[in-house]
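To whoever is on call:

I kicked off a structure prediction for a single chain this morning and the downstream step that reads the tokens threw a length-mismatch warning. I double-checked the sequence; it's 172 residues and nothing unusual in it as far as I can see. Pasting both halves so you can look.
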Amino acid sequence: MFTHIIFDYFPVFVEVDVENILALTSDREKKERVLEIVHGGMKLAAEEFNWDISSLDLVYENIKQLDYENVYPLLKKSSPNRKFICSVLCHHEVASIDVYMEIKKRNGEVINKEKLFSVEKTDEQDLFCHFGNLEWKLNHKVEFADKDYNHVYRLTFLEKDKPKNLVWKIEK
């Protein structure tokens, strides 16, 4: 399924009751359980290589503090006038990835963010194989497209005096 992921790895075996995990009803419980499994496996690898596990523990605690939210920036580009940054963000859920387009000002203030689509049973590397074009057409117009430009999302926005007056239109 994920044949595009190729890297060297160190196998770690962790005993897991898969039926128990699949029987969990909430995505939150599944995320919590998977974090415990991955963290346990990473600690086994750390012991094998004599790594300091404090970094692993820090990441583990940060994931919990972030409420198990996993957001990955797929693409990011500045507008021609350098006033805005457009990001395509992947929000990982248990069985899907929700893809959003977000516009920020240079100071980091989010102007707006909108969900473009959702993909089931994939990862961001697979998305990157298909979707990889993010291009500003004008200072207030940006396009996100697949490699062949068969699927294009065009965002046109215009800031007004108040955030509630923002003009924001995505064409698919």
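Update from on-call: the warning came from a stale cache, not from the record. Cleared it. Sanity check on the structure: The chain has two domains: 18-65, 70-171.
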